[in-house]
Amino acid sequence: MTRYGAITVLHLVLLTCFVISGAAVDAGAVTMDGDPAFYVDFGEDTHDVVAGLTYTWTLGPTNFGFVSGTCTETDTFCLHVHDTAGWTIVGDPSLGECQILDPGYLWWNEVTVTVPCEVVVCDYDTVIAVMAFCDDMLLCRPDAGDCEDPNIYDDNLYYSIDTVILHVVETPPSLYILQDSLYYVEKGQSAAHIPFSVCNGDPCVGTVSYSYEISSTGHIGGGFPQGDTIDVDGGECEDVYGIVDASAGNVCDFDTLTIIAWDTETATAYDTCVQIVHLIEM
194 near 215, Cβ under 8 Å? Predict the structure, then answer.
């Protein structure tokens, strides 16, 4: 259990004073001395998600006792989060951990949801966050209700329950390439590195080996084609480079680099992109 000292939410300052840990077996009594609500909630009603990825929100549970008409004292609260689809949800600090808050004070709590690989496009999950009271046995009690809901502060409404609906959308292609459409190179460079990002768009397929080849029209330097094989983890990108010798080029020269990439094992995934290189004065 963590205690936070008194200060108004206008300052949004976090202060950890002490931590008490203990195991509770039976539910105890709940006293509503303070008034829970989220000063910072999910911030959105819906969010598009992709199978295999994780998504994190930072919530700000707050003791609104400083504006409550009934529950105006220091109290012990917790953050409880559940969902309708049974996806993996974790918190930092841990969900259900008791926090002592003086009126007008908050703590920051990350909530992370992992989307299973088994979902399909247009699946939904509803995630519900509850700022709840802890009972006198230090058990998180989302069943205990609220004191005043909503709380009104600076003409805004603040609630102790917030919801976000997660909507599964199509996974990006298993192979795609990112690049700038135009890349500037200073005249005189003998080994200018022109970046391309080779991406494995599917977080659920694991690491994939991709081969690539970069060619040039030859207007700035030579040494092409260039290529190699790289391993890219699911849902990640790796940078590769076309190396251009611009030592003999002239200002305002243009060159075109074309990259072709494919999955090394089966050659069934394929992508290509073009990047313009423009030589400029140093």
Answer: no
